[in-house]
Amino acid sequence: MTTSLIAAAPTFAWSPKVAAVMISCNILAIALGSLTIKHKNVGLGLPSSAMFGGMGHGAMLGVTSLGHVFGAGAILGLASMGVL
């Protein structure tokens, strides 16, 4: 079953459009996380935490991971529609 899912995934080359989609999704996730995470400054701090809404290391790692999930879905969806 896994091989059929991999075979069904669209293939495309990296381009600046793909990078723009991933960056946009990460910015969206950071904005969403800075508005919704209750205890975002717990743990290690970031050197420029004021720029990211006062988030600590763990919160930033979590929201950028979520941003990559959003980005992968958006890139695969846009590639299957023929936009990328």
UniProtKB/TrEMBL annotation:
<dbReference type="GO" id="GO:0009522">
    <property type="term" value="C:photosystem I"/>
</dbReference>
<keyword id="KW-0472">Membrane</keyword>
<keyword id="KW-1133">Transmembrane helix</keyword>
<feature type="transmembrane region" description="Helical">
    <location>
        <begin position="18"/>
        <end position="37"/>
    </location>
</feature>
<dbReference type="GO" id="GO:0031676">
    <property type="term" value="C:plasma membrane-derived thylakoid membrane"/>
</dbReference>
<dbReference type="InterPro" id="IPR037101">
    <property type="entry name" value="PSI_PsaK_bact"/>
</dbReference>
<dbReference type="InterPro" id="IPR000549">
    <property type="entry name" value="PSI_PsaG/PsaK"/>
</dbReference>
<dbReference type="Pfam" id="PF01241">
    <property type="entry name" value="PSI_PSAK"/>
</dbReference>
<dbReference type="GO" id="GO:0015979">
    <property type="term" value="P:photosynthesis"/>
</dbReference>
<keyword id="KW-0603">Photosystem I</keyword>
<keyword id="KW-0812">Transmembrane</keyword>
<dbReference type="InterPro" id="IPR035982">
    <property type="entry name" value="PSI_centre_PsaK_sf"/>
</dbReference>
<dbReference type="InterPro" id="IPR017492">
    <property type="entry name" value="PSI_PsaK"/>
</dbReference>
<keyword id="KW-0602">Photosynthesis</keyword>
<protein>
    <recommendedName>
        <fullName>Photosystem I reaction center subunit PsaK</fullName>
    </recommendedName>
</protein>
<feature type="transmembrane region" description="Helical">
    <location>
        <begin position="58"/>
        <end position="79"/>
    </location>
</feature>
<comment type="similarity">
    <text>Belongs to the PsaG/PsaK family.</text>
</comment>
<keyword id="KW-0793">Thylakoid</keyword>
